[in-house]
Design a protein that fits this description.
four-stranded antiparallel sheet, seven-stranded mixed sheet, alpha+beta, globular
């Protein structure tokens, strides 16, 4: 029986993804959809499933290898059982279909008094920041590369150029001291935090004081707890966005008394569970149409206005904070949005999001409504220029002209890039959004 080639399926725009775990060995019998290897991109981890049932004949990759769509993972001797999901001869066709993937901010479960539980800050896209995000108006950039002797791949060198990192200062953790993307991201995180990077002086690039070195055990019992992969991957991106984007956060409240009553009534009439997040996304589309500068990205000295509405939402998972993207929200009704939000949130919690399901966002929403709080400052998800934070709704007295009446008020926190959005525009957008939430019928105008 001849062995068939099993290849890496479609993994979005990623061209150089690391193998972090090999889950099978030669001679092992596997079933259809059994996980073969685990890959890790800048933002997500993903298991590659078996397209057929059979026995592993030969492994073609190992931990530490870098792969891309179409790379041969292993040779498989097909058993002939359960091969219906993917024909034996069509491992190439597997590359054309998205694979369930994992991982890296509000959950889909709603509460009667506020938006669904969520994450405080959206994890940014794994795309490099546009050149404009590194303008002198923010902070001094990291040193540009000074020599070409660093042991790094072209892909890593491109990441270093985008982040302004001198590779000669970065310690490589790969084979024979090879510099990996993770090493570049770690270096940026250490520089921003003031931690002395390996091979460099403390905060040399930003002229910061050295990070304090403390033996915490001197003061009492301690328990070291390693950060999850998602938190480590997102740390450099979050630090970059916070330092390089001049954030301004504006706060307002929306009266959602009627909206919440409508949501409860809707859930009593039909099987799809509508969360406040679904209604928020629907209202956000109408607000972004009225103020397109917030549905944009900086590209050098140009502002790219996006004519699509792909909205990211923060999902709280056991692995860390993830930002699935709901595509074409402007073309979907509330029930369809609610259904897709539930599906994406479930995949996020199960670690099955594909990279494509976390890319291409034009605006993000991060909700803490199911947890609490009155306001917060969400970090902008570069290369977007704005993000909406939502806190817990609460009943408050409101003067209607004759008496005080109880109204359900939803706190809104809008963070925006001040190079694109000024205070007046931010205030108008937030006021418009609050008006839409008070009467969602306005979104039809």
């Amino acid at each position: 029986m001849s062995a068939i080639e099993v290849r890496v399926p479609a993994i979005g725009d990623f061209k150089d993804v690391g193998v972090i775990d090999v889950l099978v060995k030669p001679g092992q019998a596997v079933k259809v959809d059994a996980s073969l290897i685990t890959l890790e991109s800048d933002k997500a981890t993903m298991d590659v499933p078996s397209p057929v049932e059979g026995t592993v004949a030969e492994l073609k990759v190992k931990v530490g290898d870098r792969v891309r769509e179409g790379t041969v993972i292993l040779l498989m001797e097909e058993s002939g059982k359960g091969a219906g999901k993917a024909p034996a001869a069509s491992t190439a066709s597997l590359a054309a279909a998205p694979t369930p993937t994992a991982t890296a901010t509000p959950t889909a479960a709603p509460t009667p008094t506020g938006p669904p539980t969520a994450a405080q800050a959206a994890t940014p896209e794994p795309l490099p920041a546009p050149a404009a995000l590194r303008s002198p108006t923010s902070v001094p950039p990291l040193p540009v590369p000074t020599n070409g002797r660093a042991h790094a791949s072209p892909a890593v060198r491109m990441v270093a150029r985008e982040l302004g990192v001198d590779l000669s200062r970065v310690a490589g953790s790969g084979p024979h001291g090879r510099i990996l993307k993770e090493d570049v991201h770690r270096y940026v995180k250490e520089v921003v935090a003031g931690t002395p990077p390996a091979g460099g002086s403390a905060g040399a690039a930003l002229d910061l004081l050295p990070w304090p070195k403390v033996d915490f055990a001197r003061f009492g019992p301690v328990e070291p707890k390693p950060l999850s992969r998602i938190r480590k991957i997102s740390a450099a991106n979050l630090a970059r966005n916070w330092v390089m984007i001049p954030h301004v956060t504006q706060h307002d409240e929306a009266d959602i008394t009627e909206l919440e009553a409508f949501r409860v009534k809707l859930n009593q009439e039909q099987p799809v569970k509508v969360t406040l997040l679904a209604l928020l996304l629907k209202a956000s589309v109408a607000a972004l149409r009225a103020y397109p500068e917030l549905n944009a990205s900086l590209d050098g000295e140009s502002l790219v206005l996006k004519r699509y509405y792909h909205l990211g939402f923060a999902a709280d998972t056991p692995h860390g904070l993830l930002v699935p993207v709901l595509r074409d929200a402007d073309q979907k009704g509330v029930l369809q949005i609610a259904r897709e939000l539930g599906e994406l949130a479930a995949k996020a919690r199960e670690g099955k999001l594909t990279p494509a399901e976390m890319q291409g966002g034009s605006f993000s929403v991060s909700s803490l409504g199911g947890i609490g709080g009155t306001a917060f400052t969400p970090i902008i998800n570069a290369p977007e220029v704005a993000i909406l934070g939502v806190s817990r709704a609460a009943l408050k007295p409101h003067w209607d002209g004759e008496r005080f009446v109880p109204r359900l008020m939803l706190p809104l926190s809008l963070s925006y890039d001040h190079r694109v959005v000024d205070g007046a525009l931010g205030a108008r957008f937030l006021a418009h959004l609050a008006g839409l939430l008070a009467d969602l019928r306005r979104s039809l105008l």
